[in-house]
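Dear U.,

Please find below the material for section 3 of the report. The protein was modelled together with zinc ion; I have listed the sequence and SMILES used, followed by the predicted complex structure.
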Amino acid sequence: MKTIIVLLYLLLLSFSSLNADAHIFVYHRFGDTRHPSTNTSLSELRKEFNYFKKHGYKVIKLEKLVNALKEGRDIPDNWIVLTIDDNFKSFYKKGLPIFKEFGYPFTIFLYLKATEEKYRDYTSFAQLREIAKYGSFEYHSYSHGHMANMSEKQIRADFDKGLAIFQKELGVRPKYFVYPYGEYNELLEKITKEYGFEAVLNQNMGAVSKGTDIFDIDRCALVGKPKLKTYLGFKELHNVEILEPKSYPKNGVLTRVKAKVDKNAKKAFVYIRGHGWRSVKVKDGIIDYKTSKKIRGKRMKIGIQVGMKLKVKVFMGK
Ligand SMILES: [Zn+2]
């Protein structure tokens, strides 16, 4: 019942606030039914692109958005950036023609080992050079490993190898980075900056607005039949402070989510990855949600939503 109420609430809000901050979406595979959890059918892709077109959205280059953020400019409500993670062949064969048809720019984050070692589902360097006429390439790692669980030496070796291949094959040095699996921690964030990346994108639901941390830019994944209108209605929740948890729980059970939000907020939603959203009361700007939730896997995501404003944080286990 609670879930239904939350869904209805989200639906209502999505109609009342179609104008929001800019949004970055991430796709993976196209027209590839073997992998439903990372696939976008071609009819769905067309439907989404037609929606953007019909409702006045402007699909812009990632670089334009990052530069606007760097310069501290206001971010227009109708900007959309399209990104694609992993250099799957299905983009080259099936997705690209539709992007070309709409004239939409895109950025592909490359997993270099897959192309270098000619994995079957991945594009070749020759195909990538052809794709480069229509979009841009950025960096997604050499080995696509769980980098938040690698040693400093392993992380640096992965960057060194991948960046050398990137430059050799494509003739440019990437400026932006996306964490494999959206997994990151302080060490990885620090090393990423040392390697000179100008911006880093995650895979957390949310939005982009003036004041967004350019080393932690949110992207919503569009797979299957996504709630596109809801995603487009999200705004970025600034100034939310998660007081608890501070780290991944040692025994893998999350018992409390405490956060500081706007003083005037009366209610909010707490999101726990694997457990969905819960409506919670806000008292004097404080959310204090006591629970007992087993966290599956090493990646714990906690989201706080007030109205349509949202912020998700990732906490990595060892
Ligand atoms: Zn990936």
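For the text of the report, you could mention the following: The CA atoms of residues 204 and 261 lie 19 Å apart.

Regards,
Y.
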